[in-house]
C-alpha cells in the first residue's frame, strides 16, 4: 500500500514525541503513553514493537504467509497464558475479563457470557457438530488459524494511541 508524505510526517512526529526527540525508541518511552498505562496487555503490546525480525521490502508470498503466521502466533500466545498450546475456556475468559474490566457499562457476567459464546463458536468452527457428551478442550494453534482464515490480520492487528500527551509520574 502506498504511503503518503503526510503519513510519513505524522509517523515522524509521533516517533519524536515518543522518543523524547532521541534517535531511537526504547521500551521505557512507552511508559509515557496514558492510553497504555492501565491496559492489561500493555507488556505484550510494547514487546511487539521490539520484535527483532527484519521486514524485507519485497517479500514473496511464502515470506508474507510466514509473517502472517508469526503475527497469529503472537496473538495466540496472548491468550494461551500457560503456553501449553491450547487456549482453554478459562484462559479465554481471563483475557476477555481483563480487556473489559475497565468498561463500567458492562455487568460482571457479561465478559463470561462473551467468552463462553466465542468458545462455543470456536468449537463449532473447528470441531464441527459435537455430541452432548463431548467436551471441547480448547483452541489449538491449528484451530486458531482456521478461525482467522480469510480475515485480513494486517488491518486488524495494529495499535493506535488516542492520547499522546505525556503523563506525569509521581
TrEMBL record:
Where does it mainly reside?
other
Q: Name one GO biological process term.
A: cell differentiation
**Which keywords does the record carry?**
Calcium, Cell membrane, Cell projection, Cytoplasm, Differentiation, Lipoprotein, Membrane, Metal-binding, Myristate, Nucleus, Protein kinase inhibitor
Spell out the molecular function terms from Gene Ontology.
calcium ion binding; protein kinase inhibitor activity
Give membrane topology per the record.
Lipid-anchor
**UniProt-listed Pfam families:** EF-hand_6 (PF13405)
- For whether the record's keyword set contains DNA damage, the answer is no
Output the SMART domains linked to this UniProt entry.
EFh
Which Gene Ontology terms of cellular component type are present? cytoplasm; lamellipodium; nucleus; ruffle membrane
Subcellular location(s) per record: Cell projection, Lamellipodium; Cell projection, Ruffle membrane; Cytoplasm; Membrane
The organism's place on the tree of life at top rank? Eukaryota
- Annotated ranges, domain EF-hand: 67-102
Q: Which family does it belong to?
A: Belongs to the calcineurin regulatory subunit family. CHP subfamily.
> What name goes with this protein?
Calcineurin B homologous protein 3
